[in-house]
Specification:
Elements lengths: L1 H6 L4 E4 L5 E4 L6 H21 L4 H13 L11 H53 L6 E3 L11 E2 L15 E2 L12 E2 L3 H12 L2 E5 L16 H8 L13 H6 L3 E4 L4 E4 L9 E5 L13 E9 L3 E6 L14 H8 L4
Parallel strand pairs: 3-11
Antiparallel strand pairs: 1-2, 3-6, 4-5, 7-8, 8-9, 9-10, 10-11, 11-12
Length: 336
Amino acid sequence: MIQALKKNPPTLTLPLKGGREKLVGRHYKTNNEIDKEANTNYNSNMMNYKSEKKTVGEAHSKYAFHATHSTHIKKAAFTLAEVLITLGIIGVVAALTIPTISRNIQHAVLKNQFKKFYSTFWQAVIGIQTKEGRPVQCYYWDGTNPYTGKCTPTCDEDEKNQYGNCTVYRCAETGDPLPADLNGKFSECSEFHEELFLKTLKTTKICKDHAYEQGCLPESFRGADIVKTEQNPDKKQDPSGIFSDSSIKNNYPVFVLADGTYIIEYYAYLGGIPIYVVDINGTKGPNKWGYDIFSFGISGNKNVGIGSIVQKQFNFAKEEGGKYFQYMYNEAFNIK
């Protein structure tokens, strides 16, 4: 009996998906062999049906089941947890990178706007002097101040206001009153400003005073004293100081140009002092000192007249993360 089983082992069949059987023993067949045989039978039956003038559709409908179930395709898929984790990672990366990218884009735009303003303003200034054909006397000393070491402004403690600013000045060396041209030559500034703001620059709106009420300033504009108070709450700022919030909104003239840029002239309409504040993109944001708002002046000497735009002498305010005029100038014009 045992010898007979060894010579003729029984055939063991195991059920497979799709109704097929996998033979084990003498007639063992692999899955690949089964698939190959099924496809061969399918093609053979299709040929028989065609020879019997059956339609391909009829043949296919009969044998499609076998062809469909003769292949083993394993499909991969993500679980809900994996999808949520992936989305979470993407969200974290976006939260870290998008603000930086946004700031870089904004800074690049502001640099271009600064460069445009500087070029426009300086060409207008030099154009006026070229048209005059002589040195225009409207500038702060550019380092050739004849009073250096001879007259240093000072005052006594009882001549200072509650904010520590002198109300009366005299020369520390001599005690004499300050000379009129201690800081520069301003004798032709009124005529220069008239030519600059009314004839050369493309001014579309003028607010001689009360600029805020007349719509020449955005609601978010803040004077230098407000910014400084926020940065140093313990130090009192003079509300009537240079480019203070109250002075700008109520007293200083503002000139709005065709592209929306507005320039604030110090002290008085077509006055005699060449100091300014500019918002290079007008009422658009961010409306912050050191970002799109900068202060500057004009310097020169007796020989050349107006010679350059003052960059360091008139840094009245800078908000956190902002830049003073000279640093923005260096970036805009790629000056190391």
